[in-house]
Specification:
By secondary structure, the chain is mostly helical. Strand 2 and strand 3 form a beta hairpin. It is globular. The mean pLDDT is 88. Strands 1-2-3 form a 3-stranded antiparallel β-sheet.
């Protein structure tokens, strides 16, 4: 299937996504998945039947759950919005993925990790990821003007869900960012890429993260999102209200933030087991009065 043959259809789909303010990366991914579907069919995707979609999903069933659900999202949008074919949408189902506990570093591991980061630029960027609990896409999108040292906050512009929010700016992080600014004098982007016109890529930051974890000899699987998980867990262990953590993370639902209660080990250890409670009561009942 050539690009020319599906060009009008693709243009309509892009327009539909633009109207709904889909991010450019999301638009690119959706178009690519429809191209993959067209390649599977061997003809224009707007001619597909429900059986064609079923065969496509069956052929892709060996892929991971996130990949399968991304395909479902794309096909639902393509058939439901661009083509207006609810008959196919009604027969596509998302795959349920068991929710796993996130990997969390201890405070000592975080300190070793940040100390092992290569160069001031990556140390500052990874410190922002942990110190403010940002997503990797939010870290690389920071501008110099987003750092408000007077109010001691960082402005996150158009984070996930196209929402702005503020997060705290710790004095230690401010000192580190000032050292980075003094050394590099970034203009515009706080962490510019190889070409200063563009920001550092998420791929660059992920590579720096993996390298730091290796240098720090941390056996856990570490990614920039691990720092965000660790940020939320450590705040919960400091008895910060979970609703405050929800706002700092930019979570739409409290249920998402509540996941960290399951990995906050310091909080869990402080809870008295009912067995201990019963044992204390039994001891009190058998001890002779003074």
């Amino acid at each position: 299937m050539t690009d020319k043959a599906i060009s009008p259809l693709r243009q309509r789909m892009i327009e539909d996504m633009t109207i709904r303010k889909f991010a450019s990366k999301t638009q690119h991914d959706y178009v690519q998945r429809v191209k993959n579907f067209a390649g599977f069919l061997g003809r224009s995707p707007d001619t597909a039947s429900f059986e064609d979609v079923r065969r496509y999903q069956l052929a892709a069933s060996g892929a991971g759950v996130p990949t399968l659900n991304q395909s479902v999202s794309t096909l639902r949008f393509f058939f439901g919005v661009t083509l207006g074919r609810a008959d196919i949408v009604n027969h596509t189902q998302f795959v349920h993925e068991p929710r796993k506990l996130p990997v969390v570093l201890s405070p000592e591991e975080v300190a070793r990790f940040l100390d092992a980061a290569s160069g001031l630029k990556y140390k500052a960027a990874l410190s922002v990821a942990y110190g403010a609990g940002l997503r990797v896409s939010e870290v690389v999108a920071l501008k110099v003007s987003d750092i408000d040292s007077e109010r001691m906050v960082i402005r996150i512009e158009q984070g996930k869900g196209h929402k702005d929010r503020f997060v705290m700016l710790s004095p230690h992080l401010l000192d580190l960012l000032r050292a980075w600014y003094k050394a590099a004098r970034p203009q515009g982007w706080l962490f510019p890429g190889i070409n200063p016109v563009n920001p550092m890529t998420t791929r660059q930051l992920r590579r720096a993260c993996h390298a730091a974890a290796h240098m720090a000899e941390i056996g856990k699987r570490v990614s920039p999102h691990t720092l965000r998980h660790s940020f939320a867990t450590h705040l919960l262990e400091q008895n910060i209200d979970i609703r405050v953590i929800q706002v700092l993370l930019g979570h739409a639902k409290l249920d998402t933030t509540a996941l960290y209660a399951r990995v906050a080990t310091k909080t869990i250890r402080k809870i008295m087991s009912p067995l201990d409670h019963i044992t204390v009561k039994l001891k009190e009942s058998v001890e002779p009065p003074a």
